[in-house]
Fold:
Amino acid sequence: MTQLPWLALSIERGSKTPIFEQISTAIRTQVVSGDLTAGTKMPPTRAFATELGVSRSTVVTAYEQLVAEGYLRSLRGSGYTVCALGEVELSRTAPYDGVTSEPVDIRAPVPFETGMPDMRLFPYRQWAKAVARICRTNPQAMLVGGDAFGNFELRKSIAAHLSEWRGIDASAHQIMVTAGSMDALEICMRSVASTGDVIGVEDPGYPPLHHFAQAQGLVPHYLKIDDDGATLPSSTTLPDLVVLTPSHQYPLGGAMTPNRRLEFINWANAHGAWIIEDDYDSEFRYAGRPIPALAGFDQLSRTIYVGSFSKIFSNALRLGYVVVPEALIDRFQDTVKRFGQKASYMPQQALAEFMSLGEFYRHLRRVRRSYGDRRKLLLDRLEREFSQFGFFKDHQAGMQIVFHLNPGFRDEDIASLARQRGLIIRPLTSMFARDSGANGLMLGFCAYTEDELPPAIDVLKVCFEELAAGRSQGGH
Structure:
């Protein structure tokens, strides 16, 4: 095995192409051209990062991308080495046939968009292998539908995942595959509520949920959020169902306390109501394991559990799922018959294969590690440089941070000015159905590398300083 001398690699700091992508592209080109041969040992990540003047995590991200694509191999304690390319690699002398195809550009999301996974970390090669394997061994599963609840192999994989990660003991026949979490929520509401029924929704909460409930003729009853989580419905109002985000409240963050969970379960049992648990981004907990789901606490007695692969895996797949209590299976089957199944069968068997091979969990561990590093960078900067503008609560979970503003700043003003400077920031006030006096910014961090975040944070700081200066001048 040979040791690679330092790569002749230059970084274009002003380029729109992320630095980690510049590094991986340069290495990939040298592997394909034969300049880097099989068995060549790559430079250590820390020393290479110092040589290039970038963060170590940037080099690690570049190397891991090439591992995912099959160009590099990573062995514990041995670093990274170049893999052998097979006969089926690029044909460099393919004749031009006059037909061009539009290149696929993996767009780096604009800081600080919320709820965005970093698709540059997606394990494309491993996913392609799972799809190819199914195409060879069971191609009909890609096109021919089975049960109305979805592909049975995927439902078994989901059941195993929920048992290990969320503390939910459910069988595959209770799991329904959906076209994302919003489709799952719609199916739940159609199955257990009728026009004129009262639905309890968190405030602040997910605006599309509020809009859909009203479009279905449901009457929203808004549940305030306190330090223990969503508050119980008032004694004068008896919702037929409530929608909660107990493991990680959206958008404020924080987990519902065990006592509050028990109070909701007792309330549902006493009034014959249903709880829909929207387990939004619960896997992204950066200290310890994810908090057990309310549905596990309730043993699926009065709780319907909704999950999604969009935040963990890919927005493009549009796959989610519902765990249906035994008493409601017939109702959900009837809903599917009346309104149809929106979830595509095409990726379901492949996703089941991907999970059974362990690739899903390797990807989950990898992105949690990367997102955790990015989160720490953002929180460190906010704590050191933004204390005069506001504060945050560290819930050690989620895909965004809520930065609560000090008096004198309006979140809509900051968001508007930031938008002019190329950032996308959602004001916290836009998440409330009623005027609450809340004032803050939702800052997503998952989709941006540790080289992309600092310039965006600098721009945000300038926005605050400009507004502060204008306020000071106005006061005189």
Observations:
- The two ends are 71 Å apart (CA to CA).
